[in-house]
Amino acid sequence: MLHRTRPQGPITMPLGAPPPNTEPDLERRLAEPTTGVLDTLRRARGDIMVLGAGGKMGPTLARMLRRGVDAVDRPDRVIAVSRFGAPEVEHALRAASVETVRCDLADRRAVAELPDAPNVIFMAGQKFGTAGAPAATWAANTLVPAIVAERFAGARIVAFSTGNVYPLSPVAGGGSREDDAPGPVGEYAASCLGRERILEHFSMRDGTPVAIVRLNYAVELRYGVLVDIARRVHDGAPVDVRMGYVNVIWQGDACARAIQCLEHAASPPFVVNITGPETLAVRSVAQRFGELLGHAPVITGEEGADALLSNASRSVELFGAPTVTIGQLMVWIADWIARGGRVLDRPTHFEERSGRF
Description:
By secondary structure, this protein is α/β, with parallel strands linked by helices. The protein is 38% helix and 17% strand. The protein has a domain of 240 residues: NAD(P)-binding Rossmann-like Domain (Rossmann fold, 3-Layer(aba) Sandwich), CATH 3.40.50. Helix 6 runs parallel beside helix 7 and helix 10 packs across helix 12. The two termini are 18 Å apart.
């Protein structure tokens, strides 16, 4: 479902890049290939298949790949694979010169018929609804990766995972690092660790180079943690600060880093946290949105001493700082909401501390 906020006109803008003011402009900026993406695509040759391309991030990543491949003058195909429950997503990808294939990735025979590709980005998974149907979540997050890993043995695979595989960590510690022991809270997080272990098994058995991307959290102007907070401030709804601290990253930067991970795929798998380098206080974020939107935030709850946090040092060392800062992103989100921009009604439930989704 879609939600449109009450139009109030643009906010006063500080210096910086102007905010996207239409969805085509937003889509263009999200899918702009970075210098790092172009460098990777010059070296990582061959067709690229995006599995699970119909979700929130998949279309951005597929379009970024297509634009990047064209920019470096490669003849390779970009193939987006999904059930495409929303036909308009498939149509938009085709309009962007991305090939599409409809496929249920849980169907072993259908996956066997997919075209070969030396580069695979695996984005499929299930989160919401886990509490009511945990078996379906485990199937989506462990059985499907096994089918994919067998079918594409030997290909470079970049697989999306989540920072939820970590336990809550002390805020002062700077977030969990890739070498820290996992400690998933709840069935969803446990199934995501299961996905990682399945991919690790097939990587070591077959010598398949794999990179595991622990994402936490991607944000654009229509959905994400910052949008959740901004909407609550705008509407006068309470902002729950029990999960008092978060990490976020512009979705375009998250996609760019995932693409660059093609060059880091290895056996055993390479693991990297993909998020912003800042630890953001939810209370401070709400207060900043209050300033931008002209609505004093309503705060509820008290911050805990720990939170779901990931340390982004490894990704920053490899890929540099994100191209869009948190300050700029918050200004863009506030402007978008104040203008009545379209917002996806897909709350992140970032404040959930018990792991129930």
